[in-house]
Amino acid sequence: MAGIFLLPALVLLGALVVYPIGYSVYRSLFDASGDGFVGLDNYREMFSDDATMTAIKNNIVWVIVAPSVATALGLIFAVLTERVRWGTAFKLVVFMPMAISMLAAGIIFRLVYEADPDRGVANAIWVSVHDTFKESPPFPGAHPRPNAGLTESSNGSFTTDATAKAGTPVSLPLVAAKRDDVSGAQDAKAAKPEAGKVTGTVWFDFTKGDRGQHNVLDKGEKALADIKIEAVKDGKVVATTTSRADGTYTLPAKADGAELRLPAWNFGQPYNGVDWLGPSLVTPAIIGSYVWIWAGFAMVLIAAGLAGVPRELLEAARMDGANEWQVFRRVTVPLLAPVLSVVVVTLMINVLKIFDLVYIIAPQTSQDEANVLALQLYQSSFGTDVNQGLGSAIAVFLLVFVAPVMFFNIRRIRRERRR
């Protein structure tokens, strides 16, 4: 009688689990066409293929890093929000990403990691922090005209051909500054000679329609402020200054007889952040998006376990003189060990089959560096060079990879039932 009730479940189990596993093992022993028996050749090819080996290495990184970080953050969030009034609201916000599909999360983080700071949130924050502590070049790409009396050095700086003389203003005209950098600038002002000092003007030597004279300060031409100017004698910098809002500058008497140099920093490209999806950072970046999604899951499970921790034990530890860190490390964490193991094992199984986040977030240029086994399986089975024999071999290997974690989880469940 019991067999009748079990029959539908057994049929579904056989059709959805046993048969696909058996057929994958069988198919892995044949070539791409499925007609020629090749034995273990697909497995040999799998371990000799650079893409597959990269995928295996990345999967190992995923298994170690992603569950550990997500569980640690979940534990921290659960403990810290236990005593605050707005803890429930915070938990709701942290758990909300679980309601988003992996596809949607991948699209969100593809935009977050956009290289352009004007579009990508990560680089917008990173550039803002960088620019807070380090000054940005004022006029990227600007340079003098060929006949302006300034010679470019190999390091990108520009030096005057003639030496400066005190009391004689030195003009430093530049072109090719970006419109946005000069649109709000003041009109340039001709510097007045000062006894015993070297003066001059730095300006954008361009008028609409290019109707002005070259290397001459025409009416309405814009000043270039914050340009660094160095006075150089015998290869040594003897004085430095910065141009004012009206483009004028003043150097002390020791600049008399020196060459004036505009350092390359003035014209360097601004800091545009980090290439989050480049070959070196693409895997950590994708793991970060995974943690954003699953830290809430870890937090909720750990918070549920934390609610069952006897408060008397925590109070007894405090009465014995333990500080909060000691209570957390020596009492709370050991009591939460069963819950933490559940979270870690669940996340390990989950990351072993990660596919969609990598497929969506990693650009084509760095997808090989971000490759994982599930993605390699898909590419081998349905990509450009279709080889379902090799894809089946990868699927079997992935099953073997997951099996130890699953067996550990099953044993843990059985031990808990015996208690």
UniProtKB/TrEMBL annotation:
PROSITE patterns: ABC_TM1. It is a multi-pass membrane protein. Keywords: Cell membrane, Membrane, Transmembrane, Transmembrane helix, Transport. Pfam families: BPD_transp_1. Residues 150-162 have a biased composition (Polar residues). InterPro entries: Ig-like_fold, MetI-like, MetI-like_sf, UgpAE/MalFG_permease. Residues 56-409 form the ABC transmembrane type-1 domain. One of its GO terms (biological process) is carbohydrate metabolic process. One of its GO terms (cellular component) is plasma membrane. The chain crosses the membrane at residues 60-80, 92-113, 290-310, 331-352, 390-410. This is Integral membrane transport protein. It comes from Streptomyces bingchenggensis (strain BCW-1). The lineage of its organism: Bacteria, Bacillati, Actinomycetota, Actinomycetes, Kitasatosporales.
